[in-house]
Amino acid sequence: GQVPLTARGVLTTRNGKGQFQLTGAEMNGVPLPKAIVQELVSFFSRTADNPKGFNLDEPFNLPAKVREITVNPAESVVVQ
Which residues of 16-36 are buried (b: 16+ CB within 10 A; e: fewer)? Predict the structure, then answer.
């Protein structure tokens, strides 16, 4: 089955790198600790090139030559 998970945080981007700081998460209204969110993200983001998956605490490369993303209410600006 499927269960919706909501995650909130702050996305910071610069020079083609991104960093996401998790500020909260819940599944069906039940708060989730960061360790459980990290386990879920790691499991579902594993690839042959990255067998440990995505780490929430580490910066990541932005895709498609994106240099920066600015998120504002009702608008996002992507700079390539």
Answer: eebebebeebeeeeeebeeee
- 3-state SS of the chain is CCCCEEEEEEEEEECCEEEEEEEEEEECCEECCHHHHHHHHHHHCCCCCCCCCCCCCCCEECCCCCCEEEEECCEEEEEC
Global confidence as pTM: 0.82
Q: What digits encode the pLDDT tens for the residues 3-58? A: 999 999 999 999 999 999 999 999 999 999 999 999 999 999 999 999 999 999 99
